[in-house]
Fold:
Amino acid sequence: MRQAVYNLAARFSPRPPERKIEVVVCPEHGSTMESFRQNLARILHYHRVYGASFALFNKDGIIVQAVYGNASDNQPIAADTFFRVASVSKMITAAGVMAMRQAGVLDIDINVKRFIPYADSLQREITLRSMLTHTAGFHDGAIYNHLIGTGATLDKLMVDESVQPENREPIWEYSNFGAGLIAVVLEEMLGQSFEVLMQKYLFKPLQAQASFYPQHLDGLLANAYQMLPYRNAPRFHAQERKSRTDIGWDRVDYQHYGLAQGNCCINTSGIQKIAGALLAPGFLLDSTLRDMQAVHGSFGERDNRLKQGIGLFIVEDHTIAPYPLYGHQGLAYGAVHGVFFDTKNQDGMILLTSGSSFARDGVLTNLNADVMKLWQERQWMN
Structure:
């Protein structure tokens, strides 16, 4: 009901002035490219996007990139602007875990319950596979939603029954808490901090500029603004986040349960390198990619267009494409992000924003659905 009210308000609320869109990477200019630019600008304006970086890519690199609007009040989005990509971080975390598995340093199918504090009483097994596919049974209970981001210790969360898995057969339930605990498990298993592991096995091998600590990035980091109702002050304040201490980033620490689910900061180029590695065999084996793209659960009534892979949404919507698309969406602080790829045509799209309407019918936002449709029309290829 609340989402329906939001969608209605979004439909009739005033839109901000249309902002200039600049194509910074593109194929040969022509009428089709200009039509694509205009259609993209129309979609971004319609969905009240404050600022965005949009790209189309294949496994070799970015084909088209356009920037639109602002990262902050006085700073336009640039081609290399960083964004906190919210739940797209889950796809990035999954890519890192699968790279670690491929390197032979971990098994995603062993019981990892012993690595999770206060989980000894659970009768069911917990595996990294189940955590990556939201079938481990963890809940985003009231205490999690109340304490996340406050610096609360993990024991305050784990002892609360509202987040603990029940002792029954696993079912799919999207859980930020369960996804965040992946960092704790990795650290306990491998004896290195989550940030160190992700740099070692994913970011550095792919030469992707990214970090779960924005303090470690040189370059502009976008704010995130709430578009409805509009708030002039950012809900995610980049400079304030970059000024925080990073003490403990290189240590094994139970407090790192708040990283893997949503705190990766990355730019469009970095996302392309990771999504490109998930698009086609090379960095990861074909068998690894097929495992990630296999159905491990269904969103059910939450959104019948979506199924769950390992760290991936599987999008089955014939109004967008007649075959499955893969990737992930991220929503936080007013920002909407979407990274999706097409294994049939071997290309993908990236949308990173500093604020947008959250209107949606189910889980997938209307903004992401409309941009995916534009991508699938492939005007830019002609």
